[in-house]
Design brief:
alpha/beta; binds magnesium ion; elongated; binds guanosine-5'-triphosphate; six-stranded mixed beta sheet; 11 helices
Length: 273
């Protein structure tokens, strides 16, 4: 009797989870996992062929977690091998290289591939996502800044970490937060707790910052037609200023977006009678 109770307690405390890594080829997925599991870095590129599989044990609070890691190949060539492995994951590590914009832009298509392969029963709310902005040690070649990456991640309720598999920066912090969130989710009946990543900004604010960053000129930035009147420019400006004012908006990149809007308005008003 005693041992049965003990066994039940132990069962409750141990947990098995499956996590996968996603992202373009050569962004550093395998190196991030190797840095965490083996505490080392390999500078030579050894492309993952299809899938690499590994198991590790971690301790989160009073629970022992057995983590099955499926490290996916990023190359399109391996799609047929990869697509089998999306199902039943509790956690996803999404990786991009901060020196390659296309690897950041590809994150959306990685999510789409995953959703497609998981099929109609896919419940993205039961999965913890962590985004790794990797290779931050190569600061000179960096093209995707922190606010852009953080905004993409946090506006989706995903964790965001700046990492370097080479130096080890951010790697342990990232895995600790990742495993602890997965444990919280499992204890919460398999649903991502609402306060999982407390973003503190709205989807509208995030989308507006993204739109401002991508705008081609000042008219476009304020969302008015070329040739708009002073009144129209001021009206559009006021709306954006209320949305993005640094006192009100804590979204990553909001301060720069706000400044850009102020400058756009000033330059447009100079040329409108
Ligand atoms: P696939 O398996 O083809 O999908 O690639 P991957 O994403 O697993 O990339 P991998 O971990 O094999 O790393 C690719 C290359 O980037 C290797 O040459 C690594 O040494 C290098 N690399 C990975 N992470 C870092 C990093 O943080 N900093 C630097 N400087 N190089 C890194
Ligand atoms: Mg790999």
């Amino acid at each position: 009797m005693e041992t049965n109770i003990q066994k039940k307690r132990e069962n409750k405390k141990s947990l098995r989870v499956k996590v996968i890594s996603l992202g373009n080829a050569e962004v550093g997925k395998s190196c991030i996992i190797k840095r965490y599991c083996e505490k080392r870095f390999v500078a030579k590129y050894l492309a993952t062929i299809g899938i690499d599989y590994g198991v590790t044990k971690v301790q989160v609070r009073d629970r022992e977690i057995k983590v099955n890691i499926f490290d996916m190949a990023g190359h399109p060539f391996f799609y047929e091998v990869r697509n089998e492995f999306y199902k039943d994951s509790q956690g996803v590590i999404l990786v991009y290289d901060v020196g390659l914009k296309e690897s950041f832009d590809a994150l959306d298509s990685w999510l789409s591939e995953m959703k497609q392969e998981m099929g109609s029963q896919a419940n993205m709310e039961s999965i913890i996502f962590v985004v790794c902005a990797n290779k931050v040690d190569l600061s000179k070649r960096r093209v995707v800044d922190e606010s852009e990456g953080r905004l993409w991640a946090e506006s989706r309720g995903f964790h965001y970490f700046e990492t370097s598999a080479q130096s080890g920066e951010g790697i342990n912090e990232m895995f600790q937060a990742f495993f602890s969130s997965i444990t919280d989710m499992c204890e919460n009946g398999g649903r991502r707790p609402v306060s999982e990543v407390n973003v503190g900004f709205t989807r509208e604010q995030a989308d507006t910052i993204r739109r401002i960053r991508a705008s081609k000129d000042s008219w476009d930035m304020l969302g008015v037609k070329p040739g708009a009147t002073r009144e129209e420019v001021n009206k559009a400006y006021r709306k954006l200023a209320v949305l993005l004012h640094p006192d009100k908006c804590v979204a990553p990149g909001s301060e720069d977006a706000f400044k850009a809007v102020v400058n756009a308005r000033t330059s447009l008003l100079k040329n409108i009678k």
